[in-house]
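go over this:
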Amino acid sequence: MKFRLKASGLHLLGSAAALSLVWGILYLGWYRWPGWYLDDVLSLIGVMAGVDLALGPTLTLVVANAAKSRRELTRDIGVIVIVQLAALVYGGIALWNGRPLYYTFSVDRLEMVRASDLDPDQIAQARTKNPELAPHWYSPVRWVWARFPDDKKAADSILWSAISGGSDIIDMPQYFRRWEDGLPDLRKKLKIVDKLGNLSAKDVERVKARMIQRGFGPDQPITMIMTGRGAPLVAVIDPSSAHIQALIRSK
């Protein structure tokens, strides 16, 4: 039993180190708050942890036997490690492809844009027409203003594309502008919590209670919805400076 426990413990340490490296890089680069929440990655992380931190070391505890030959033991543990690596690679690729690249203000809301949301053609146009805000594989998360173009024909085309299920303005980085440029428009779009969309009645009451706990008045026009793949957040914004003071969970 001592041999089994030692083998399982070493396996657990190795698995934890590999997971920590992958998660640490992705978290520090892209998934810091509010990225992990808006992208709803906890379920995927749970599966990765289950396979790599629970299943793998447990199976090693079962198969490890001091009576086995080194070749047989290496083969058995090797099969387990291969399965773990497959899960780690799959999860890592999914997290990489879904990593947040932008938090956008557009029209009347804040929205998260993931790497997988961007079309290669739009990226190519952005690198030509808007290189300052164009995405690259190494780009960190950036806050931007996704402003519709002044050309009415182009704006109508984008609007129709969004309505018909195609690309929206937030998926077109060639039109992105600096976050600071959009703040005057952002101030005009602030609402009281009751007027926000994307929230159920229970969500609204929950957000109001959390705002009061943090010293904000829910009856003041200081909020804006922020959406992603997961549950929405409510951004509390200072009307004078347009500084985001808090991001309140709706669930």
Remarks:
- The radius of gyration is 23 Å.
- Residues 2-31 form the longest helix (30 residues).
- Residues 145 and 170 are 9 Å apart (CA to CA).
